[in-house]
Design brief:
The chain is of the alpha/beta class and 132 residues long. The protein has three helices and six strands; from the N terminus they run E-E-E-E-H-E-H-E-H. Helices cover 20% and strands 24% of the residues. Helix 1 runs parallel beside helix 2.
Amino acid sequence: MRIAVTYEDGMIFQHFGHTEQFKLYDVEDGQITGTQIVDTNGQGHGALSGFLTGRKAEILICGGIGGGAQAALKEAGIKLFGGVSGEADQAVKDFLAGRLAYDADVQCSHHGHDHSCGEHHCGEEKHGCSGN
């Protein structure tokens, strides 16, 4: 199995559509057997579903994610665990142990607001991402 995590400096990046890197975890028999960090090369939002499919990801752990990206992931057969924050490695360990805290109804509702994506942090309560 291959798990992808939105990634920045060891942490789960909080805006799926703007992630510049994923950390990929190869898992066999419940153990991590290898990892790699891959650049998205400027691909964003809907294109990231194809990016992950091309890297054979079966599971995605991320922070905030919009409805269009969720639909694309579902169509690609990638299982989503959104609304997660913290260290990427720990999130994968928690997932494998069956104790990952995630939001099954995660939404990133900031699209359409009059601000640039560099001025917010998805996952903050005041923002509306991660289901808040």
